[in-house]
Amino acid sequence: MTRRPRCGLAMAEYLPARLFSPADRARMDALSEVAPVVLTDFDGPEARRVLGELDVLITGWEAPYIDETVLDRAPRLRAVLHAAGTVKHHVHPACWERGLAVTTAADANALPVAEFTLAWILLAGKGVMALKERYARERTAIPLHRDHPGIGNAGRHVGIIGASRIGRRVIELLRPHDVLVSVHDPFLDPADAATLGVRPLPLDELLDQCSVVSVHAPVTDRTRGMLDRRRLGLLRDGTTLINTARGDLIDQRALTEELVSGRLHAVLDVTDPEVLPADSPLYELPNVVLTPHLAGSSGNELTRLGGSAVDELERLVHGRPFRFPVAAPDLDHTA
Q1: Residue 13 annotated among the catalytic residues of the structure
Q2: Is position 73 annotated as part of the catalytic site?
Q3: Catalytic residue from among 46, 49, 274, 323
Q4: Measured in whole angstroms, how far is the alpha carbon of residue 2 from the centre of its chain?
Q5: 3-class SS of residue 326
Q6: Does residue 68 contact residue 95 with C-beta atoms inside 8 Å?
Q7: Is 56 helix (H, G, I), strand (E, B) or coil?
Q8: What does the alpha-carbon distance between residue 50 and residue 38 come to, in Å, rounded to a whole number?
Q9: How far apart are CA 128 and CA 72, in angstroms?
Q10: 3-state SS assignment for residue 42
Q11: Are strands 156-161 and 179-184 parallel, antiparallel or unpaired?
Q12: CA 331: distance to chain centroid?
């Protein structure tokens, strides 16, 4: 660009201090003229004034929706750089129709989710959930070789549902480990599967064959409720189901019944609804690990998201292609 772009931040007011490290904030200030207010809505007179001056919006959690009305107020706007994952909830299709570039920090957010998933895959293979409960109950030596001969991760068959950014990161992190990885994803072609070093399987076969199954699919009309009562019934007794994607990919009532029966184990970072009712049995079940949607970027991991957005700003300023662009057709099959 021939001049420094005018940049605005549209997100929760508390967020910039957590998203941008001092070094990245200094880099952002050097690359652009950053508006002094954080835009938490686009309706007030100050917001309208700022919008009219902006070339770039860096968005984050709780970003207000960018629709045609907002675009009319921002005639200079040319890029929306999202310092988080999905853009579905705040970017209207009109942004692409009017030629705006849209980017995401989903790749940066994939790493902590993949790390969380890897940890629980390996712990599940060692039977940690059941053995922790037994050890606490009996408080004596456990004859592992006699009572639990099937534990361990040597040759463990792991199933990944969704070769998404996060699914692929999980596959990458599993590569040094002695496990067999199968993947279900209707968009994964055989050549891509071979490159990833995984075995593609239809969903029903994957559920039947794998002793640990991790869900990494986006929510679309095709995938919502994909793990229904019938498919959950295909999982073998003792299988561990991990969900760090979205709760409504799984029939919550059917899953709860399976878990109450004790037939399956589960690590659930997301549920449907997102916070279960206070009387849900899943809070107390020994075969369930229930976490408050923490697998994604949290705490000091947020700076990766901010850094990714500033990296894209730098590419824009220097006329280089974006690293993580989002095209409108991508929204039909991605998060």
Answers
A1: no
A2: no
A3: 274
A4: 36
A5: coil
A6: no
A7: strand
A8: 10
A9: 56
A10: coil
A11: parallel
A12: 14
H helical segments located in the chain: 16-19, 22-31, 45-51, 68-73, 94-97, 106-125, 128-138, 144-147, 165-174, 190-196, 203-209, 229-234, 252-261, 302-317
| Residue 144, amino acid | L
Helices 106-125 and 165-174 cross at an angle (nearest 10°) of: 50
**pLDDT, tens digit (0-9, with 9 covering 90-100), for 21-62:** 999 999 999 999 999 999 999 999 999 999 999 999 999 999
* Token digits of residue 8: 């605005």
- The catalytic position among 82, 165, 169, 246 is 246
The pTM score is: 0.93
Residue 157 CA to residue 238 CA, distance in Å, equals 13
Catalytic hit among 33, 293, 301, 314: 293
CA trace torsion 92, 41, 302, 173 (10° rounding): -20
Write out pLDDT tens, residues 74-120: 999 999 999 999 999 999 999 999 999 999 999 999 999 999 999 99
The two tokens of residue 38 are 């954080």
Which of 261, 264, 289 lies closest to 119 in space, CA to CA? Answer: 289
What's the angle, vertex CA 25, arms to CA 20 and CA 31, rounded to 5?
Answer: 130
For the chain, give the number of residues: 335
**CA 240 to CA 90: how far, in whole Å?**
34
Q: Is 274 a catalytic residue?
A: yes
Which two three-digit tokens encode residue 25?
A: 């904030």
Q: What angle do CA 122, 107, 240 make, to 5 degrees?
A: 25
Residue 121 structure tokens: 């895959």
